[in-house]
Amino acid sequence: MSPFLFYPLATMSVIFALSVVLAKSPVRSALGLVAVMAILAVQFAFLQAHLLAALQIIVYAGAIMVLFLFVITLLNLESDRGIGEKPKLSAIGFGAGAVVAGGLALAMLGVVEPAARAVALPEGFGTTAVLARQMFNRYFVAFELTSILLLVAVVGSVVLAKRTAAENSEGVTGA
Amino acid sequence: MSDALLFDWVIPGLKSFIVIFMVLNLAAVLLWIERKGSALIQNRVGANRASILGILPFNVGFLNTLVADPLKLFTKEEFVPDGADKFVHSIAPFLALFPAVVTMVAVPFGDTVEIMGRTVELQAVRLDVGVLYVSALVSMGVFGVALAGWASNNRWALLGSIRGSAQMISYELAMGVALVSMILFFGTLDLQAMVRQQAGLFLGVLPNWGIFYQPVAFIIIFTAGIAESKRVPFDLPECESELIAGYFTEYSGGKQASFMLADFAESVMVAGLVTTLFFGGWQVPYVTSGQGLQLPGMASPLVLPALAVTLMQVGTFMIKVLFFCWLQILIRWTVPRFRYDQLMNLGWKGMVPIALANLILTALGILLWGDMA
């Protein structure tokens, strides 16, 4: 990927990522996140990983972010009331952010060696056939376990939602 | 001009330009076809008040929508309601229009041509993941609708946008499952490869098109496509008798024109997708590229020049796309609007189970007889 493409795209994604955190309205934050996802997809596409780019858009931008947007518009969330309201949470947030930024800075300055080094791309990299072969041979067990994990999460959330609803209705009849 | 410049920049740029130019213009022409066509169906004259400064002695119907309508729309006041989110209100029309217009770049409009000894695919971008690219952009279309209604600060607009996004998400599911059965059937995600597999004959007489193998998937994808483009009978998000104009109630001028254009561009996109998957894309019946015309029963093919075959293929693709655009307009003016519960029942209790059953049958068929490739 040419640096003439990478740096503008990377700058844009950083700007949109900042807008996610800094925007006052939750809908604008969500939009910023959509933009970050879209730019990531564009970068994947430039790196010849077309399948990953398409999946990035379908799953994150097209499904998860639409759900976010739905929740935000339906719940009619108030605009952010400023960062100072929850000092403990913001302290934790700033701490975590500082650790990540520090780690990145150390890696970029070359103090710490990154675990992965650039390697030559294998034949047919990024195509559906190659990715599918990897996923259904080498990583098959991990892939299936992940899907079971997601299923457990779905069942668990339904159970939790049902229990809260039942408790609420009991409370109403009890009163 | 150097070869690298020509083949890396000029030709791909030209191909993308042609496709996007075609989609935008076809969308505008469809607006005219729709106004005149609906007038024909309803036995009235239709748009008939356009003439250049009153000089022409006759009315020029075509001018009505190609020149007069856009001029009228773009010279109108751009209105942003009080208390609306101005920024989101302004970008929503673009978010609706963009995916609809750029989807067609993955759809092949012809076989290959030889330019200066090199083979050039007549497809703006040849993607390994063509079908997924289309479905990714279809799923992006929800944002324009959802944000337009939310940003308008109007309850009817919000109701329209919620209806619209719920409908689009519901029908995307059936469409996605039907697309998976087509992917299984062709054994590839590449739209150009799918079209190439539809060459030849089916049962010795008919062209070897996907529709003869997968009629159920065709009905589901076409119906879901009409629902995705939010047109009658699926125009609940607009529903002028209940919601004024639905999610674009608070839009005027050029922004409203963008929503309209997005609707028609989506129609073109659905027509292109259906043509590619089920009607052989650019394949001309009984004509094989590199060989020529061979009707069933002819001993040897009638050899045609390569350029003639290419032109026939591009023309055939256009005719097929126009046919399905016209079919959508015909459906729009024939079928009455659904009730919202009927819409949801059709999507979730009708089309999703049928699409799933079709998927299982397709998988079984492939297990028994192998896929197209």
Report on the structure:
The complex is a heterodimer of chains A (175) and B (373). Chain A has a domain at 3-122: Four Helix Bundle (Hemerythrin (Met), subunit A), CATH 1.20.120.1200. Helices cover 77% and strands 0% of the residues of chain A. Chain A contains six helices and no strands. Chain A is globular and about 60 Å long. The model of chain A has no long low-confidence stretch (mean pLDDT 81). With 373 residues, chain B is mainly α. Chain B has one domain (3-369). Helix content of chain B is 62%, strand content 4%. Chain B is built from eleven helices and six strands. In chain B, a hairpin with a 3-residue loop joins strand 5 and strand 6. In chain B, helix 1 packs parallel to helix 10 and helix 7 runs antiparallel to helix 9. The mean pLDDT of chain B is 83.
Distance between the termini of chain A: 66 Å
The shape of chain B, in one word, is: globular
Largest interface: A-B, 23 and 25 residues
In CATH, what is the homologous superfamily of the domain at 3-122 in chain A? NADH-ubiquinone/plastoquinone oxidoreductase chain 6, subunit NuoJ
Q: Can you tell me the number of structural domains of chain B?
A: 1
Strand content of chain B: under 5%
The class by helix and strand makeup of chain B works out as: mainly alpha
**What oligomeric state do these chains adopt?**
heterodimer
Total strand segments of chain A: 0
CATH overall fold name of the domain at 3-122 in chain A: Four Helix Bundle (Hemerythrin (Met), subunit A)
Structural class of chain A: mainly alpha
- Topology as H/E string of chain B? HHHEEHHHEEHHHEEHH
Can you write the helix and strand succession of chain A as a string?
HHHHHH
The total of helices of chain A stands at: 6
CATH A-level architecture of the domain at 3-122 in chain A: Up-down Bundle
CATH class of the domain at 3-122 in chain A: Mainly Alpha
Poorly predicted regions of chain A: none
Mean pLDDT of chain B: 83
Separation of termini of chain B? 39 Å
